[in-house]
């Protein structure tokens, strides 16, 4: 079982960058006014920050990293590890992290690679960075997590279009022997891989002319094989089945209870999922911050974006005990228990092209 | 668990549903405007109240409130 802890890693800073707020679900005329109101009330997304054409995840992450590195006052040559977690890489070939290494002016002795994960990406990314640092590879590292999910949604698909927003984040971590260990519980169930997927354009089904054909799937859902598709009920039931036991197992392993935690930050899947999970854990709303109203579901960026946008004051001023829990595409899910102590965290940056 | 409690719990979740309208033999897709969000609300209620999972297949195979109730009830007893 993938429950483990990693000592001596400190989360030193984080930053998030989003495009300008450009879409309001109240104006989403593909569905009726009544449906829009119902969607905003229950799914919880009011505004979405949609990247303009040509702006990539790495653009957002680089802006966030520039700001963070300046505020941290880190010597860029000391950064020896850069992991870029995204499902919207700049190119099919080469690796985005290599390009970012150069754009940020990091040293040639820096390890840089991409990891193709979505919703669960932040928790998985933290585990990868922490593990590599623990093995002595690097003293300072950057974790970039983000997605331009709006690239692949169909306007005429009410199950995806009004849900997703774009964001890029960066987290700075360093080796510190006095740091409280990170504790992880990571899980996978690939039998559910069809619940969230883009069928064509990869190696299994290469892009053809037919990939672009728009097909009616059901009422309010018209999309092509290059659009992301999401089986709402399947994802919903998966989340309600797996997330709470995952968190409880991690608490048991660490001999902690939810009372020991200041905040539980969920992946911002949708308001209904997150409220149900919160009720299942019997947690007060004050302990579970949301950013979905303002930003929508921002894929892997949603956990760090929620931290930066909702918990900045607490994170920058003192000790905070956090449980982060992320779940979705894969199916892949995981939680991490960690402690921060006065991190550097600039306000959410609005990307200006 | 009994069907009156079950109906009361559904009424509590759906603001537009006036108390007393929903009956055991009501065809739920006709009583309130059925959509995918309503399906999720119902699934969430059943999961939190009874720790039972309703699948898409359960919804497709159910016509009346009682049909859903029976599916939920049969899984609680197990």
Notes on the protein architecture:
The complex is a heterodimer of chains A (353) and B (78). Chain A has one domain: 3-Layer(aba) Sandwich (Peroxisomal Thiolase, Chain A, domain 1). In chain A, helix 5 (232-254) packs parallel to helix 6. By secondary structure, chain A is of the alpha/beta class. Chain A has helices spanning 33-42, 57-72, 96-103, 121-134, 232-254, 271-280, 292-295, 302-310, 312-317, and strands spanning 3-6, 9-18, 21-24, 47-49, 79-85, 111-115, 140-147, 167-175, 182-188, 196-197, 215-218, 221-223, 229-230, 263-266, 319-328, 332-341, 349-350. In chain A, 28% of the residues lie in helices and 27% in strands. Chain A starts with a strand and ends with a strand. Chain A contains nine helices and 17 strands. Chain A is globular. Chain A has a six-stranded mixed beta sheet with strand order 6-5-7-8-2-17, sandwiched between helices. Chain A has a five-stranded mixed beta sheet with strand order 1-9-16-15-14, sandwiched between helices. Chain B is mainly α. Chain B has a single domain, classed as Orthogonal Bundle (Non-ribosomal Peptide Synthetase Peptidyl Carrier Protein, Chain A), CATH 1.10.1200.10. Chain B is built from five helices and no strands. The longest helix of chain B is centred in the middle third of the chain and has 15 residues, at 36-50. The radius of gyration of chain B is 11 Å and the shape is globular. The two termini of chain B are 13 Å apart. The interface between A and B is medium-sized, with 20 and 15 residues.
